[in-house]
Amino acid sequence: MAEQAQWDRQRVSEIIHSTKSMAGALLPMLHAIQDSQGYIPKDAVPMIAESLNQTRAEVHGVISFYHHFRQTPPARKRIEICRAEACQARGSRELEAYAKEKLGISYHGMTASRDFSLDPVYCLGNCACGPSVRIGDEVVGRVDKTRFDELVDDAMTLPLEISS
Amino acid sequence: MSDVKNNSVSTKVYIPRDTTSLSLGADQVAAALALAALNHSNDIEIVRNGSRGLFWLEPMVEVETGQGRVAYGPVTKNDIDELVNSGLFNGAQTHALSLGDPEEIPYLKKQQRLTFARVGVIDPVSIEAYQQHGGFVGLEKALAQSGQAIVDAVKESGLRGRGGAAFPAGIKWQTVHDCGLEEESPQKYIVCNADEGDSGTFADRMVMEGDPLMLIEGMTIAGLAVGAEQGYIYLRSEYPVAQQILNEAIANAYESGFLGNNIQDSGRNFHLEVRMGAAAYICGEETSLLESLEGKRGMVRFKPPLPAIEGLFGKPTVVNNVLTLAAVPFILAEGAKTYADYGMGRSRGTLPFQLAGNIQQGGLVELAFGTTLRELLDEFGGGTASGKPMRAIQVGGPLGAYLPESQWDTELDYEAFAAIDAVLGHGGIVVFDDSVDMAEQARFSMEFCVAESCGKCTPCRVGSTRGVEVIDKIRQGENRAENHILLKDLCETMLHGSLCAMGGMTPFPVMSAVNHFSEDFERTTG
Question: What domains does chain B contain, in order, with CATH numbers?
Answer without folding.
Answer: 4-109 (3.40.30.10), 127-340 (3.40.50.11540), 343-433 (3.10.20.600), 438-521 (1.20.1440.230)
